[in-house]
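Lab notebook page, bench 4
Experiment: in silico fold of construct C2
Operator: M.H.
Input chain length: 265 residues
Purpose: comparison with the prior construct
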Amino acid sequence: MRIRIVDAFTDRPFAGNPAAVCLLDGDDWPDAERMQAIATELGLPMTAFVLPRADGSYGLRWFNVQIEERLCGHATLATAFVLGGDALRFDTLGGELRASVREDGSVTLDFPRADISPREPVDGLADALGAEPIDVFESAAPRDLIALLDAEATVATLAPDLDAIAAIQRRDAIRLVAVTAPAAPGAEHDFVSRVFSPADGIPEDPVTGSAHCALAPLWSARLGRDALVGRQLSARGGTVRTELAGDRVLLGGRAVQVLDGELAG
């Protein structure tokens, strides 16, 4: 099995969000237990398994170090970057996803738009984050919490209690907790975010493409523009370009391959 490691949503190595892309050469999926074991061995935020189909599309599944995920943006971008092409189609647990890769290597993902709605304050969330949200939103599919904070600096300096966030995830059946705020004056981006999912083995996700399926409509409504630039303020950092397209969200970014090898055994 050929495996490439790609840093997604960045234009330089050792930044953005790393993903392993495993190209399968059989007619069917390996056992889920084997795919999970490979993902756990690699120890990256996400490992994608790609199965070519006779009709030219691809089956795509994602595993982090603990579980199989239903939707992942950065590993899909990494996969598209490896495959190349201007009309890629992926059959996934999150539905059909599409992608295109330009000649300069930039990738655009076509993902389902996440419906978001305001919700009442979440018990324990402010204490878990170490900051009082201005508003809290919830997306429907996947079910994520989005906490709106006052400023980019607040998001950047946040030091959350990850055990408390994990307890909220388990209690409320939440996939992840995202914090977001408007960009600082003069910034080249429009909004910022950080994403935490410690209950699923991801204390802080470096760059979360799928979370932008909800962040994009939230900020487009607030800023009055369909096309925006988001910056995720993890230690590695990454940039996600977003554009609303009806019931879809276009997620744009770059990628860098940092390793190419074969699985032994």
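Observations: The chain is about 20% helix and 40% strand. Residues 217 and 224 are 10 Å apart (CA to CA).
Next step: discuss at group meeting.
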